[in-house]
């Protein structure tokens, strides 16, 4: 790979981290009226911070503290995913209840959020140094592009789907709407 291609991948990775930092920040913000907001604000706030750090200084992924923080958060999120999956299984699958649609279950949405966190932070771990610049392999970049697009498309579909807005729990209704300011 020539230097210009490496630079393009490097810059694309920085832009990807910027978009994911925005997404994780928004995901943290919309938790403000959730009953367990503190847990979810931290769960999304830490990846937002890690993404901003990689945006500003991509070589930070070589830093031991950054790697330990990322690994620790990955382990916590994976444990959270296991807990949520077992809860979904026990409440809908094993109990003989009819399984609801995926996005109708708050636990499933929580699982999807943690899954995005885990996949993105894993992609951040897969970076390599090329010509002194920290950049991910090409496959990781293409996976990252798909991963960046996915949450924004899902969020837009939830926002514009009027049927879904009716079945949301009370604490979720209006969480994506910006507050109106009156003068």
From TrEMBL:
InterPro entries per the record? Answer: TMEM220 (IPR029377)
Keyword flag Metal-binding: no
Name of a matching Pfam family: TMEM220
Which residue ranges run through the membrane? 12-31, 37-56, 68-90, 110-127, 139-160
N-terminal signal peptide: none
List the keywords (alphabetical).
Answer: Membrane, Transmembrane, Transmembrane helix
Give the protein's recorded name. Transmembrane protein 220
What is the protein's species of origin? Strongylocentrotus purpuratus
Q: What lineage does the source organism belong to?
A: Eukaryota, Metazoa, Echinodermata, Eleutherozoa, Echinozoa
């Amino acid at each position: 790979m020539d230097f210009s291609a490496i630079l393009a991948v490097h810059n694309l990775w920085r832009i990807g981290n910027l978009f994911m930092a925005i997404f994780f920040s928004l995901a943290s913000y919309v938790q403000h009226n959730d009953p367990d907001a503190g847990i979810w604000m931290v769960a999304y706030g830490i990846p937002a911070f890690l993404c901003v750090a990689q945006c500003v200084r991509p070589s930070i992924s070589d830093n031991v503290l950054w790697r330990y923080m990322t690994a620790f958060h990955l382990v916590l999120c994976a444990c959270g995913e296991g807990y949520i999956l077992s809860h979904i299984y026990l409440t809908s699958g094993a109990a003989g209840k009819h399984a609801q649609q995926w996005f109708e279950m708050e636990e499933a949405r929580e699982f999807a959020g943690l899954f995005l966190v885990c996949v993105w932070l894993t992609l951040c771990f897969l970076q390599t140094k090329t010509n002194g610049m920290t950049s991910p392999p090409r496959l990781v970049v293409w996976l990252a592009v798909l991963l960046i697009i996915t949450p924004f498309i899902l969020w837009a579909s939830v926002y514009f789907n009027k049927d879904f807005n009716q079945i949301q729990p009370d604490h979720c209704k209006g969480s994506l709407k910006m507050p109106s300011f009156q003068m």
